[in-house]
Amino acid sequence: MSNQKLFNVAVVGATGAVGEQIIGLLEKRNFPIAELKLLSSARSAGTKITFKGQEHTVEEATPDSFKGVEIALFSAGGDVTKVLAPHAIQHGAVCIDNTNAFRMDPETPLVVPEVNIDKVSEHKGLIANPNCSTIQMVAALKPLYDRYGISRVIVSTYQAVSGAGSRAIDELHRQTREVLAGNEVTPEILPVGALPVKHQIAFNAIPQIDKFTENGYTLEEMKMVRETKKIMGDESIDVTATCVRIPVVNGHSESVYVELKNDYELEDIAKLLQDAPGITLVDDPAGQQYPLASEATGKPDVFVGRLRRDLGSSRGLNMWIVSDNLLKGAAWNAVQIAEYIAIGQK
Amino acid sequence: MSNQKLFNVAVVGATGAVGEQIIGLLEKRNFPIAELKLLSSARSAGTKITFKGQEHTVEEATPDSFKGVEIALFSAGGDVTKVLAPHAIQHGAVCIDNTNAFRMDPETPLVVPEVNIDKVSEHKGLIANPNCSTIQMVAALKPLYDRYGISRVIVSTYQAVSGAGSRAIDELHRQTREVLAGNEVTPEILPVGALPVKHQIAFNAIPQIDKFTENGYTLEEMKMVRETKKIMGDESIDVTATCVRIPVVNGHSESVYVELKNDYELEDIAKLLQDAPGITLVDDPAGQQYPLASEATGKPDVFVGRLRRDLGSSRGLNMWIVSDNLLKGAAWNAVQIAEYIAIGQK
C-alpha cells in the first residue's frame, strides 16, 4: 500500500469489542492512515490505546469530531450512528456502520465484499455492515448461488456470547464457575440485556437472540431473513432461521440447509467453495475434520464443511458454516469495505 | 398398580448412566416387581445399589442370568444385547433394548409409546428403544402427522454430553475448568471414544456424533433419518439431520423444520401439542418463555416451543424441541414400554 493517498480515519466505539478488533486490523493491514481518531462515549473518553507504537487518547464522539474525517467506522450502537453519522457525512466522510440502524434502508448499500462489493459505489455517505450471522452465511452461499441458483435456505445457528458484548462473556464465565462449584446461578444479562427475563447460558442453549418480533421470530432471525435477500439481491430466496445462543465465547456455527435451483455434483460444490474468496473448506469426514468455533477464532475466513446431499431432495444440500463473529462477522468485514473505498480493491 | 401380577425384572447395564435412571424410575413408578436382578459387566459386578430401601448386589451378566426373568431392560451397549438378549428370550423374557443393535431389524418393533405403542404386540421377544434424539422429535411430530400429514423434516440438534456417557460428562467439566484457568486442554473422549481424532467440547460446538457413514452423514444423523420413518410407519417422510454436540451436561435441544402436507393454523398446532400425551408446550415469546435444556432435565416430558410459520412456505413450521435425553430419550421411554407390557397401559 505504499505511494497511496492517506486517509483521515475515525473509529466510533473504539473501546468496544468490535472497535478494538477494527483498530487491530487497521494496524495489521497497514491501512493508509493520515490521522486516526478514536472516539467513544463520554464514559470511555480518556482511555489510552496504542496504535503502531503510538499512544492515542480516546475522545468523546460529538458532531464536531468528524471535521476532516474521510472514513468513519461506526460500532457504538444504532442510536449513536443515527445521531452522529449525518454529521460525519456532512463533513465529507464515508461512514461504514456496524449497527442495525440503516441495514434495511433502501438508500444504504448492505455489503459483504465477497458477495456485492460493487454496491459500495451506490452509497450516499453510508454503507451498512450486515449482522454477523448473516455475513458468514451469505459468503458461503454466494458461489453456489452464482452457479446453481438458490430457492430456499433453512438455517439453525449456534451463536457465541461475544456477539452480545463483553458483559455477556463475563456472565458466561461467571455462571460456568458457579455451576462447576455447585452453586445456584443468577442470570443478569442474557438472552437480551434490555429485556426483563433472564436465562442461564452456562451449560444451556437459549433459543432467543435479540427481541421477539410480532410474527414470532426474533429480530436476529429476521435479520438473517431480510439481510440475506438484500445482500444477494434476490427477494425470491426463501429464508427461515432459528437463532440460538450456546455457551461458546467466540465463533458462530451454523447448520445450513440450502435448496439449489438446479441439479448439482457434490464435488463441484466443494470445488466452488475451495476456490471462493474468503472461504476455507474443511471437509474430511474420514479424518474427522470439519469447521469448529475453537479453530475459527482469530482467523478472518469463513470455514465450511460437512457438505452432503439431502437424502430426500436431490437439489438439497447440508453444510456447516463457522466464522469468528467479531472478525468476519463485524470488524474484518468493515475494514474490507474501508480498504475497497481507500485503495479500490477488496 | 395393586393386585397386579408381579414380574421378575432384570436391568442389564445397571451401573451405567441410563441403567441408574431405569432403576430410579422402576422405584418411583412402583413397577410391579417380584424379583429385581441388577446385571453388569464383570468389571462393575459387586457394586451395591439400593432399591426401595433394600441393598442389591450387581451381578455379572451371563447367559444363565436370565433364568426366570420376565422383563429384561438392556442398556449396556449393542454387543452385550447381541450376545445376551437371545438367551434372555430363550428363558422367556421380553427384552427392551436401549442400544442400536436391533432398531432397524424388520422383525423388531421400534417403539415410542406416544407414537406407536400398538407395535409392542408384534414383538418376537425383543422391542427396541429408539435413539434419544429421535424419540423426543417423533413424540412432538406425531400429533401434527395425524392431523396434517408430514412431507419432510429438517432437524439440527444441540445435544448434551451425557448422551456420550459419564466419561464425556467428566471430560466437559475437566476441559471447562482448564479453559477457565487459561490452560491448554487435551481432548480424550469426544467426539467419539472409539475414534482416533479428538476435539475440544468446552466452549465449542462439534458437528459429529457417532461415526461417519459412507454418505457423509454420521450414524447419529442416519439414526434420526431411518428411525423416524420406521417409528412413524411412513417411509415417504423425507428426513435430513445435522447432529451437533454442545457444552451442555444433560438435555438435548432440537431446531426442527417440518413441512406439513396440508395448510394449517398455528393456533391449532399449539392446541394439538398442548393436548398430546407426554408433551408440554412452552411457547410465550412475549414472556420470553420457551423450552430450555436447563429446565427439562429431570422431567419426563418432551418440551416444545418457538412455534412459528415458515415465512416462505405456508405449510412450513419451525419448532424447538427439548427433552432430558437420559429420561424420555432413554430410561423413561424403556420403562414406559415395560409398563405397557406389565400392566397393559401406557
From TrEMBL, chains A, B:
Protein keywords: Amino-acid biosynthesis, Diaminopimelate biosynthesis, Lysine biosynthesis, Methionine biosynthesis, NADP, Oxidoreductase, Threonine biosynthesis
Residues the record lists as binding phosphate: R103
Binding residues for NADP(+): T15, G16, A17, V18, R43, S44, S162, G163, N325
Domain Semialdehyde dehydrogenase NAD-binding: 8-123
Enzyme Commission number: 1.2.1.11
Taxonomy, superkingdom: Bacteria
Pathway the protein acts in: Amino-acid biosynthesis; L-threonine biosynthesis; L-threonine from L-aspartate: step 2/5; Amino-acid biosynthesis; L-methionine biosynthesis via de novo pathway; L-homoserine from L-aspartate: step 2/3; Amino-acid biosynthesis; L-lysine biosynthesis via DAP pathway; (S)-tetrahydrodipicolinate from L-aspartate: step 2/4
Active site: C132, H252
Main function: Catalyzes the NADPH-dependent formation of L-aspartate-semialdehyde (L-ASA) by the reductive dephosphorylation of L-aspartyl-4-phosphate.
Subunit structure, interactors included: Homodimer.
Name this protein carries in UniProt: Aspartate-semialdehyde dehydrogenase
Name of encoding gene: asd
